[in-house]
Amino acid sequence: MRLAGVELSVVVPVYNEERRLPASLVGLHMALRGIAAEVVVVDNASTDGTVDVVRAHDGPVRLLHCAERGKGAAVRAGVLASRGRFIGFCDADLAASVDAVPSVLDRLRRGVDVVVGSRAHPRSDVRARNSPLRHVGAWAFRRAVQPIVPGIGDTQCGFKFFAADVARAAFEPLRTTGFTFDVEVLARAQRLGAVIEEVPVRWIDVAGSTFDTLRDGYRSFAALHRIRALLDAEERPVTRPVLVAEAA
Question: How does this chain sit within the bilayer (predicted)?
Fold first, then answer.
C-alpha cells in the first residue's frame, strides 16, 4: 500500500543482529537524510535482543515480524508491507555502503525499474576476505545463474531497489525463502520487461555473516534448479503491471 509522502522504503531483514544493528540503523538514517523515506526492519524470529535494539532506536523505523525463516521470506514480508513509491532492501551489516542511495534514487526517478548493486561492476570497490572455497563457489554460482538471469553480473549483493509496482509483482509470487531469493526476484523482473541497471558499490566484507559456505552453498545450487523449474512451469506475463495511484 502506498502512503502519501513516502518516496522510498528501505527493508532490512534481521536475524540475531543485536550487535551490528545499532550502528547500521544510524548509518542508514544518515544516508536517508533529505529523503522522504521509511526504514522497515523485518525480524526473522531472532532469539537475541534484536527487537529491543529496534524499539530503542532514536529514529523513524517500523518493526515487522516474519515467523517464516529465511532471508527471502523476511525481505518479501518487508517489501509487501512497504509504503513508498520506490522500495529497496539492504543487509543489516551494510556491507554495501548506503552512501549510493541518493544516486540510486535518481535513477529510479528517471524511469529505471530496478537498480542492482553489483560487486562485479568494474568501478566497484570490493574488499572481501573470502576463503578460496567460497571464491570458487561464488564463481561457479555466477556461471550457473546466467541461464536464469542473463546479463546480470552479481545477483547476490544485498543492495537492490525497485519501482514499487515491479517490486510487488516480483515479490508477491516469490517461492524461494532462502539466500537465493534474489535470483527468482530478478528473473521475474526480467520477465516483466523491467529496465534493470547494475551500479558500482563500495563493499566491505563484514564479520558475522550467517551464510555457511558448505551448507548454504549446497542449498543455493539446489535452489537454482527449483527456481528454473518453477519459472519454466509458469506462463510468462504479457506485460508489467500498472501501478494505480492511491488517494492520499
Answer: Single-pass membrane protein
